[in-house]
């Protein structure tokens, strides 16, 4: 293995995994904090602007494709005379491979209908329709922990496992 490839494999790649894992962990912690805090937030009546299922397709290098779906719900509301728009149904609501699950969430919110909107008292632009956590906010933490631990393991083990050029 060339010195440049070895350097990337041994020194750069493990730190990229650690960085990616750390970002997932920070995102998960922030999402859990907001989910917990939202249970105490004041609420107001808003109006559902849009409610539909969004789909995203991806194709693997082997040619197979997969789709993920999520409920795309937007709403408007007012706090102290200021108008806001939000798009968060609940914290921890990740995409799903099941269209029916996303459609069930979107189906709870009919376009033009009133909806109870919970907002952060110190930042009313932060809002949610369903306070608390309604799915797996731990997924981000677990995913991040796995990435970070694999990165740490690689940072310690890779130098001994990847031979130097000419060795």
Question: Could you explain the architecture of this structure?
Answer:
It is a single chain. The protein is built from 3 helices and 5 strands; from the N terminus they run αβββαββα. With 167 residues, the protein is α+β, with helices and mostly antiparallel strands. The chain has 2 domains: 1-39 and 133-167; 41-131, no CATH class. Helix 1 (3-38) runs antiparallel to helix 3.
Keywords:
3 helices, alpha+beta, 5-stranded antiparallel beta sheet, 2 domains, elongated, 167 residues
Radius of gyration: 22 Å
Number of discrete domains: 2
The biggest sheet, with number of strands, parallel, antiparallel or mixed sense and barrel status, is: 5 strands, antiparallel
In terms of DSSP E residues, the strand content is 25-35%
| Major sheet strand order | 3-2-1-4-5
Write down the oligomeric state.
single chain
- Total strands: the figure is 5
What coarse outline follows from CA principal-axis ratios? elongated
Topology order in helix (H) and strand (E) letters: HEEEHEEH
Number of helices: 3
Kindly report the average pLDDT value. 87
As a percent range, the share of helical residues equals: 40-55%
The end-to-end span amounts to 10 Å
Poorly predicted runs are: none
Give the class from helix and strand content and strand pairing: alpha+beta
């Amino acid at each position: 293995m060339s010195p440049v490839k070895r350097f990337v494999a041994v020194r750069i790649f493990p730190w990229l995994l650690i960085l990616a894992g750390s970002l997932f962990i920070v995102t998960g912690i922030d999402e859990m904090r907001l989910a917990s805090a939202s249970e105490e937030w004041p609420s107001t009546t808003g109006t559902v602007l849009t409610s539909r299922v969004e789909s995203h397709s991806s194709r693997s290098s082997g040619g197979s494709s997969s789709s993920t779906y999520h409920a795309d719900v937007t709403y408007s509301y007012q706090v102290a005379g200021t108008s806001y728009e939000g798009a968060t149904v609940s914290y921890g609501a990740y995409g799903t491979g099941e269209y029916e699950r996303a459609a069930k969430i979107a189906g709870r919110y009919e376009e033009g209908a009133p909806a109870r909107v919970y907002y952060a008292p110190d930042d009313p632009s932060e809002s949610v329709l369903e306070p608390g956590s309604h799915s797996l906010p731990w997924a981000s933490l677990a995913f991040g922990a796995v990435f970070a631990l694999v990165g740490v393991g690689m940072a310690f083990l890779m130098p001994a496992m990847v031979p130097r050029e000419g060795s």
